[in-house]
């Protein structure tokens, strides 16, 4: 009887551990939006987006500090609503997309700030330079798809600002841009 009780207790502990482990998600590239804006000579906030976004999320709802995120942007997918400008932004003057095809953000620490909010610190790698950037993140919701109860989606919104020249985009100021760039990120991710 004692063996059975001990085995039951161990099984219960293991099941509890599994219940509180981080869930894994893949960012849905068809429901991921990464927009950016930067000052344009005081006239306006120049804006654009990256069309190719992917990544993974490990989300521990019981202890968000144990969560993690990795986002990948394809530099050549930049879109500012002007083909000539986009071509210039992909050039060595700005993103140098041929030599550095990906822009990545990989979390290094998460600090809970509210019921559904956190500050996510991570390494942003741009033009081969990695520096810490802080994103203010909101967990929006999680639920099954209305037409497929077996597919669970979760969604996040995030924003953060960094200096373009500090990452090697030194010609920004030559064109009256920046120097700060703000990222706005909205992603939906599918539970594995």
UniProtKB/TrEMBL annotation:
<dbReference type="InterPro" id="IPR007372">
    <property type="entry name" value="Lipid/polyisoprenoid-bd_YceI"/>
</dbReference>
<feature type="domain" description="Lipid/polyisoprenoid-binding YceI-like">
    <location>
        <begin position="24"/>
        <end position="190"/>
    </location>
</feature>
<feature type="signal peptide">
    <location>
        <begin position="1"/>
        <end position="21"/>
    </location>
</feature>
<protein>
    <submittedName>
        <fullName>YceI family protein</fullName>
    </submittedName>
</protein>
<dbReference type="InterPro" id="IPR036761">
    <property type="entry name" value="TTHA0802/YceI-like_sf"/>
</dbReference>
<dbReference type="Pfam" id="PF04264">
    <property type="entry name" value="YceI"/>
</dbReference>
<keyword id="KW-0732">Signal</keyword>
């Amino acid at each position: 009887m004692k063996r059975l009780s001990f085995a039951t207790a161990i099984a219960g502990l293991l099941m509890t551990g599994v219940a509180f482990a981080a869930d894994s998600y893949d960012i849905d590239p068809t429901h991921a939006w990464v927009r950016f804006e930067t000052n344009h000579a005081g006239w306006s906030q120049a804006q654009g987006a990256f069309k190719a976004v992917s990544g993974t999320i490990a989300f521990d709802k019981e202890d968000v500090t144990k969560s993690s995120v990795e986002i990948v942007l394809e530099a050549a997918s930049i879109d500012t609503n002007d083909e000539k400008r986009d071509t210039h932004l992909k050039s060595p003057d700005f993103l140098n997309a041929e030599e550095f095809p990906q822009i990545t953000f990989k979390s290094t620490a998460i600090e809970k700030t509210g019921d559904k909010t956190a500050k996510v610190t991570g390494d942003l790698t741009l033009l081969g330079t990695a520096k810490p950037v802080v994103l203010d993140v909101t967990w929006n919701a999680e639920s099954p798809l209305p037409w497929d109860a077996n597919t669970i989606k979760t969604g996040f919104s995030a924003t953060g600002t960094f200096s373009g020249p500090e990452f090697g985009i030194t010609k920004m100021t030559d064109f009256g841009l920046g120097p700060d760039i703000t990222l706005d990120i909205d992603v939906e991710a599918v539970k594995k």
